[in-house]
Structure formats: C-alpha cells, structure tokens
Amino acid sequence: xxxxxxxxxxxxxxxxxxxxxxxxxxxxxxxxxxxxxxxxxxxxxxxxxxxxxxxxxxxxxxxxxxxxxxxxxxxxxxxxxxxxxxxxxxxxxxxxxxxxxxxxxxxxxxxxxxxxxxxxxxxxxxxxxxxxxxxxxxxxxxxxxxxxxxxxxxxxxxxxxxxxxxxxxxxxxxxxxxxxxxxxxxxxxxxxxxxxxxxxxxxxxxxxxxxxxxxxxxxxxxxxxxxxxxxxxxxxxxxxxxxxxxxxxxxxxxxxxxxxxxxxxxxxxxxxxxxxxxxxxxxxxxxxxxxxxxxxxxxxxxxxxxxxxxxxxxxxxxxxxxxxxxxxxxxxxxxxxxxxxxxxxxxxxxxxxxxxxxxxxxxxxxxxxxxxxxxxxxxxxxxxxxxxxxxxxxxxxxxxx
Length: 401
Ligand SMILES: [Mg+2]
Hints:
With 401 residues, the chain is of the alpha+beta class.
C-alpha cells in the first residue's frame, strides 16, 4: 500500500480571514463578506448558523451584530498568490483547484523536508507566519480522502488519515461526503436503507447499479472503499474562456443585444463544460462606434458551469450598462468567464461547503458526523495538529495573535 503523501490544503473562511487579518477590529467577531449574498463568513459567524450563499438579510436577522464588509477581490487574489508561492516552495507537484485550495504531492521527500505530516505542519506554520492566514490540511493516500480530511479538520486543523485505517475514518460519514452524491442520489440510497459511506461499501454492486446506474455504482463503491487513482497533476490552467462578436454598424435594439449575448453565453458555457471547469467570475465587454470601451464583471458566490446561471449574471451586467448602450453606438460585445476551477472538485466540495441553492443542512449533518468520528476514534484514526506537533516538537501556531 502506498504511503499517505497527498496533502489537501484549504484556507479557512478565506475572504473573511483576509478581512480579519487586515482589520484587527474584526478579529474574534462574526464577519460577513458580501453585502447582498454571503460570500464568506468568519468562523464566529458560522458558529451562529451563517453560511456561504445565504441571503445577507437572513444572515443579519440571525446575527444583527455581525460586521458586514464589501468584498476586496484584489486583496484576496494577492493573498492567494502569496499562499501559492508557499505551496510551490513546499512541494514539487502542486495542483491548484481554486483561489484558496490545492493538492500537493509530497511523497519521497523524507530526507529533504520530513514526513508528509511534518511537511503539512510546516506548511500550516508558514502560511500563518508569512501570509497571516489560517489553513487546514488533510493528509491521506488519495485525493478524495485528503479532501475529506481537510474538511473534517476545520477550522485551523491538520488531520492525517493513516493507510490501513481509512475505512474507520470514512465509513461512519454520511453518504453526502462522497463526491457526486447530491439530493437525488441521497434520496435513492436512503430508500434502500443506505445512509453512511460504510453502508455503500458493504452494498452489492448489482443492487447499487439497479438503483443509481452502473457507472455511479462503480464510482461510489470505489470512493467508499478508498480507491481513487487520480494523481496530483499540475494542469496547464487557463485563466479564462471568452467569446466576442461584432455588430455591423447601426444602433441595436434591446432584444438584438440580448440574443447575441445569449449566443455568446451558450458558446462559452459549452466550452467551459467541455474543459471540465466551472467559473466564479462572469464579465462582459462592450466596444462602441467611437472606439471607447466598457467592461463589467460579477463574481458569483459559488462556482458554476450552468448556462442559465451564467446567462442570468450576464443579463444583469447588460442591464447595468443599459444607459451607455442606449447613448452610444454599440459595435462589439464580449463575454468572458474567469476565476476557473475544476468542475469535478467543485462538485466534490459541495457537501462540505454548503450548497449554491442555499441549503446548509447537509454540510451541518456532515460536520456532526465528523465530530462523532473524532470523538469515537479520535486519537487513533485522526491525528490532530497538536498531537503531531507534540510528537515532533513543532510549535503550534495560534490563529490570531
Ligand atoms: Mg477554503
């Protein structure tokens, strides 16, 4: 059996942590980033039931004393760059997933930088010391297990799933922990009496396949049994996917502009899905007959590869540009999708990170189950950062000092 050498590193409440880092008055307080929809919530806010994608008004009803701050995307992207520099300094192979998380392969580095748990502890220390941000790290033999482990260790945690004890960690978790299990599959499996990952692992393939299809059955059985052959691979990462189209001269009716925009969205969204990516930022660019230009961008609270969602964002951006379009002679429009993430990892994250549809229930159920595992198997299966640090004499960094 191979060693547990894959790290999944994920910054905690990233946007909110940057805000707390940069403004001492926000530390230790519930902080909400985003004035409409909640884009990020500090752990103090999460503890009160506030979650990402929640409506801001509902959030303030729950927690009127929360500090609401407007997002500062430039600060977040700068912080992300600093953290990625530490990632690349830590491991020869880094697979970036999004602005705030990545997989790192650290096998075979014992003589240079220590064992994977030691490397993970050092990584956490460095990110806190050099970027001023808390980061959670999961260490395991597969990407899937590492990802679940980092989620279970949050906030500000380190969790090592030892090879050979993986089932003890994974099997008590609810089936939503398996990447690809959404509401529909959950319902079907629950109907069969299957509630935990262990129930899946013990199911017959034939019975599972009859309920959810052959390929889903194989996929879930693999994950539930700890089989995930995907290596950590640094992909050539495209920064954006875009398309543009020129108008022949003459003024444009609202419906002409809209149908051209819809065609561009259709084309870019299809290319996004073909590339297996999801986007967070949707932008439009406009060029006018007098050669002036304008552009507008909107960052979604969650990544998407859905045409409808992207189109809705593009329409809002065109609405906001209505005056300019009416006053000037529009000659070209463009649509661009940025802040790209891998769609498979995005899906995998949903049960752990709250749903775009606003339901945080599954995530709460998972957190509870993880806590149960921890209290039942705690020290044997799941090593907390403090234990590893005690083993190796590495000082434990504190969150905010
Ligand atoms: Mg994160």
